[in-house]
Design goal:
Elements (H helix, E strand, L loop, with lengths): L1 H7 L9 H13 L1 H13 L6 E2 H10 L9 H12 L12 E2 L1 H17 L7 H16 L5 H9 L2 H8 L2 H9 L11 H11 L5 H11 L18 H15 L11 H14 L72
Helix pairs in contact: 1-6, 2-7, 5-6, 6-7, 9-14, 11-12, 11-14, 12-13, 13-14
Amino acid sequence: MLAQDLEFGKIDKLNKLQEDRDAVRDVLMKHYLSIKNIFLMIAANSNYPTIALNDYTSFIHRSKIIDKNVNLAAVDRMFIATNTSNNKYKVSAERELHRYEFVEVIVRLSLVKYKEPKIHEKLHDATLAILENDILPNNVGVDGYNFRKEHMYNLKCNDIFKNNDSVIRRLFESFLNPSKRYITLEECTKLLKKADLNINDYKVSPCYTESMMSKIDTLSDLSALQQMRYIEFLVFIARVSHEVYKGTKQEHKLALHQKIDACLGPLLGTADCNKIFSFKQDQESDEEESGLDVGLSDDDSGSNEEEAGVPAKATTANELSLPATGADLQKPEARPDDAPK
């Protein structure tokens, strides 16, 4: 991915010597996953799949880039220099940052913050400094892989998805037509509204973004970044189910498969479908089971009912319920600054 980003951009032109170019590449490669995840988090709350100018400015302030050596005028110059297109896909007049430009603007900002004031002589040292001192400590990135590994990859999540696969596919396919084989962010937002899951619109885009597989080329076809496939839709359901319970009394009491179980009913109902399989509350155990990827293929090894603790189709009385609005929300814990003196 970094190689593609560098090919689209102009970072190599900032160094004359190849050894210096290679050194900058090494620094970027070391922290590339974090850079990519921060970009995705900002873009998800901005103008996905790009970052708008206002959100770039917020990123600058949050990262504490401005100091005695760097003013807003310098920050704007770096944005303009980065925004000048070096490829056939991007128009220079666009006032937004693609992923490759986000990588480039970080390097350019390190020029004015660390290299030009002679804090660091080499650009790669300046780039390392701005990443480790300013950007990484002050920005949060998406964390799709660890979410799947920690919460999704277990037998019971596999069961709820695999045993309801036919009806979930019907829900997904209700958004398709012969010339369109995917679901968009806008359609996902409308789906959640129709299902009445009480999730704010501004939370939908991060869930959508974190559910998508990473693309190497994020520029030649922007529409591909908003084409969610079925396997990604499964992850989206899991992310939304996790988000619905955030800040409620049940957030830490229920495992992810229980949250998915509760959210599937309203989601499937939007396509006039019902769950085929559900867990009964009185048969839930607190055991942590792991070892399976969720719904990756029809021939997943899976688990039979006996291995999964004999979960059964739930009766109405035993089905898990969604958190109530308002009354079920926990009061936020007091921060140290809020403590009485």
